[in-house]
Amino acid sequence: MATRRASKNEKSKLFVLDTNVLMHDPTSLYRFEEHDIYVPIMTLEELDNNKKGMSEVARNARQASRMMDEIVSASPDGILSGIDLSEVSRGLATGRLFLQAEAISAHLPDGLPTGRGDNQILAVVLHLHKKFGKRPVILVSKDINMRIKARALGLEAQDYFNDKVLEDSDLLYTGVTPLTPEFWEAHAKDMESWKQDGHTYYRLTGPGAAELLINEFVFQDGEQPLHAWVTEKDGRTVTLESLTDYSHQKNNVWGITARNREQNFALNLLMSPDIDFITLLGQAGTGKTLLTLAASLTQVLETKRYSEIIMTRVTVPVGEDIGFLPGTEEEKMAPWMGALEDNLDVLNGNAGEGGEWGRAATRDLIRSRIKVKSLNFMRGRTFINKFLIIDEAQNLTPKQMKTLITRAGPGTKVVCLGNIAQIDTPYLTEGSSGLTYVVDRFKGWVHSGHITLQRGERSRLADYAAEVL
After folding, report:
1. What's the whole-number mean pLDDT along residues 59-67?
2. How far is the C-alpha of 258 from the C-alpha of 271, rounded, in Å?
3. Collapsing DSSP states into helix, strand and coil, what is residue 188?
C-alpha cells in the first residue's frame, strides 16, 4: 500500500489553496481530481475572519468551513497523513486533503514582512517546495499579485480555472449562424417545406443541420434573404421556422421596432410564450434593456400573459460607494435603476396621444406594474407568473445566478442582460462570470434562447466611443 501511494504521489501534484479560492468557490475542495490539496493554517484564519455577515463572500467562507469540518469528521485521525477525499466527495476527487498541523518558519526575503497573511501562505508553499523536492507544489490563488510574488520566489502558481466555462470569450455561443449557399445544396435531398399560420417551415437532414442547436437563429442575405430559427431537432434532422418581422411598424412592440437583424432575433425570443429563459449579451447601446422592457410591458399590460415585471441588478458601484441610502427597498434601489428610468422615458414617448396628462397617467400605470427588487432579499422567494429581468448579470457569480434563476415559479419568464466586457465584481472574469456560465449551460435547451447583439443603436457618439476608447 505504501509503495502504491508513493508511486501516485510522484505523478499527482500538491495544490496549496489561497483563501480567496475557497471564498470564491467552496466546492473547490473537490475540484482537483486525483491531485492532493493542502490548506495552510493562515487560510483557515482568514476564512474565520471573513465568516461574519450576509454577503456572498461570508456565506462562502462559512460553507467552506463546514465542508472541511465534514471531511475532518469523516477521518479525524488522518490530518497528518492526509484525509482521503474519495468517499466524502462521492468520487468527484480521489486525492487527499492535508491541513497544516505543524509550525512552519521558512525564510522569506527581507522585503516580505511575515506579519501579512499572504506572505505566511507563501512561506508554507516555499517550505513544501523544499520538503517534497521533485513533486510539483503549486499555489492556487485568484489574487494576481500573490501569483506574481510566488513566481518571483521561484514557486509555481496558477489561477483557479475550474469555474471558467471557456478560456476565450470569443468562443462563447452567439445564438446566430449564417447559412452559405452551399448549405442548401448539401441539404436539398429530402427537404420538405410548408406554410402554416403565416410562417414558412423547412425540414432538413444533413451534416450542417446536425451542428445547429434548438432555438438557434440562422440567416442568409442576398436576393432572397432568410431569417429563421430552429424549432425542432431530432439527430441530424432540424425544422426551421421563418421569423416574425419585428422591424416592420405593423409588428411594433410597445411602439418599438427592431433596427437590425439581431434585435429582430431578440424580439422573437422575448415575445415567444414557449421560451422561459433568455440571455441577451451586447455592448452599451445595443438595445438590451429597451427591447426587454418593451416586450415585458406588451405582455403584462396588453396581452396579460404575465402579472407584473420584476427588475433587479447587482449593486456593484463603478466608482466610490456613496454610503447608506434612505428609504424603502425600492427607494434604495432607485439610484441603481437609472437605466430603467431612461428606457421608460423612451417607451412613454411611444405610448400614443393624450398630451401631458395622458403620458403622466400611462407612466404611473407602467410604474405600478414594475417592481424593483434587491438581490439581497431573493433567497427563498418564488415568483409566479412574473416577467423577471436581471440587469448587469455579468457581475453575478455562477452560484448567485443559480440562486436567482431557481426563484422562477410556474408561468415566469427570466431574462438576463449584460455585457461581459464590463465586469465590476472582484475576482470575476469574462470566463468565470455567471452570465457566461448560463449562456453555455442553457444552449440547446428547448425552452431557452440566447442572442449576442452586435450593433450599437444608441448614437453615433456612443458607437464611436465603444469602438475607440
Report:
1. 88
2. 13
3. coil
- Give just the sign of the alpha carbon dihedral 375, 379, 381, 383: positive
DSSP-based helix, strand, coil % in the chain, nearest 5: 40, 20, 40
Rounded CA separation 394/413 (Å): 19
Residue 4 has what pLDDT? 37
**Owner of C-alpha cell 405593423:** 250
Count of beta carbons in the 10 Å neighbourhood of residue 440: 15
For the chain, domains (ranges, CATH) are: 2-158 (3.40.50.1010), 169-242 (no CATH), 249-468 (3.40.50.300)
Using DSSP, state whether 50 is helix, strand or coil.
coil
Distance of CA 74 to CAs 15, 60, 68, 383, Å? 21, 21, 10, 39
pTM over 0.85: no
Q: Which residue has the cell 449579451?
A: 281
- State how far the alpha carbon of 141 is from the alpha carbons of 16, 95, 149, 151, 429, in Å: 9, 19, 11, 12, 14
Indicate the SS3 state at residue 190.
coil
First-to-final CA distance of the chain: 61
CA angle 34, 39, 45 (to 5 degrees): 155
